[in-house]
Fold each of these.
Amino acid sequence: MAEPEWRRIYGFRVVISAPSGVAPPPHRPLRARLAGFAAAAFLLAGVIAIGVAIAAQVHAPQPVSAGTTGGGPGPALERSLPVSVDIPAIGVSSSLLSLGLNQDGTIQVPPLTPGADEAAWYRYSATPGQRGTSVIEGHLDTYHGPAVFFRLGALRPGNHINVTLTDGITAVFRVTGVREYAKSDFPAETIYGGNGYAALHLITCGGAFDDASHHYLSSVVVFATLSSYRRLTA
């Protein structure tokens, strides 16, 4: 997720410079001085506003490694493509894109514009509720602020994830664990490998942001298993 070279403050590119060595202004008429005072007041208000924005900026919740990455025997569903995902505990309600692989074999990610507010199902994984591992990914943030999975790290074991399928069934998953992994040591087999039960893994960026590479250095992964499901009633 590339970032600009400016300091990034969730949508604000802030550059404040203080000129030095400037000679004092010559004497000016009263009207000109009043205009100067007004301009200075607007500038001060702008600096205060920037200061408030910096102080009030929201940081992504840091995940606490808790629970387990595995699951056990439980219910399972027939294959049906996912339509949307809802995570009440962190206020997420998103339609789902369907993404595959890039030409170099890496997994595609949603476009920053306009896809930052939409999560995406990895279409070469199981569909949510099938036996096996289903993978849904989403951006943490963008140049303009928080994205769909900004608060993913706040999830805890016991929280629920609801995925609506094209056949009208809503698969209800229970979070079993939350982990943060360095991208240099990402356990791909654990995240994408098959399971004998219906697993769901949610992925976003996390950890420190590297200004040199313009990428986050870690990934946040939420592990969940299918606990129940409900059918759409007319």
Amino acid sequence: MIKKASLARVKRRPRDGEPPKKRKKIIHRLVANDLINRVSYEQYREKVRDKYSGPQGAFLEMASVISLHKPLGERLLRKRIFDLRGIRRILDVGSGAGQIASHLLKYADAGSSIVCCDLSFQMLRRARARLKSDVPEHVAADLARLPFADESFDCVTCGYVLEHVPDARTGLAEMARVMVPGGRMLLLTTEDSFSGAFTSRMWCCQTYNRAELYRTCEELGLELRKELWFTPMHKLFRAGGICVEIEKR
């Protein structure tokens, strides 16, 4: 569980007459991409599929390295900050170029099954080519409608994908559905910070308020075990987005 003191800091709302907070929200609204709120989900989904299937998606692997998300994400698993030991069935949602899947292949127990799903067929092809492994199964799937039976997986990893559904509850509920009770989730998603607004603009996604996201998890029976931080700088500036370990009750 996240310490109460930590949650208290997260849940604090600006008081009346706090101009810096107000200015930050205005800048965020000006910079962030709001396409997801202006078109139907079907139209938005096609836009996202086209973006990731095209040149920008081809750059995703390099962008993950340049931004340090890939090496710092690997550190979470290598140091057992998110511990994969004992997990047998893993679903990597929105696997993209295979950034998280490459770590799963290194640090999951031998014999564990890994399913990589993504909305874009092209991203799945890129992931398969980069991973060079017969272990993962690659499945084209929409996070809002995962094609898996209830309680199919012990673990779900979801790196910067939840922000591509109109409502966090929809994506979280689907991932909870396919997890066994006691199953754990590694969730990374874009926060409604200044850096998150720029991420939103570049990758055509929305951003989430940390406290609101935590409340949604709680309502869905997803227990927040702990907040995870890539580095002290990540924690100080909230530059790397929201990263948490969640357990299904």
Amino acid sequence: MLKANIAMIKTLTQSQSEALAAIHTLLDQDSKKDLPLLTITIDLLCSIPGIGILTAATIIGEVGDFSAFAKPEKLTAYFGIDPSVKQSGQFEGTKNKMSKRGSRILRRVIFTTALANVRKKRNGEKCNPVLYDYYHKKCINKPKMVALGAVMHKLIFIIFAVIRDKKPFVFRTPEEHAKMLKEKPMKPAV
């Protein structure tokens, strides 16, 4: 049984290497184009902590065209981590769970990305200090998996913003972000 498990691990490792090689080939072909859209999108996603080239390629492969999602809430529903609705007549349930109606693969990818963001490195440095602190504040009142679901939700909003704005991810505390938005000039109403 041990030999069978070792053989399976070797096969999976080989498959992963082949997939990464295919991704790199696609990126090389795309970078030679006049408008390397795939390469730019992969680079933007890889700027987010916890997302590597394989994760970014999986997200792009599952989501496809990000412009199909007008709001981050729609992308959240596509990932399948939006709250389910329990109601009948006048009754509205309050103990709602994740709907899980979206892509199972995307849910797994965002789950592992969330885990990577709420941990510390071996040297004690936080991988993503903002999400690390957010997660631990949520853990005070909520179960750990609920807090991790909230981190997953935030990550999807980050992914949406990075792709929409076409700017790489930058660490900002909520206070820095609020200050930046205050200083931003308001657009005139049309």
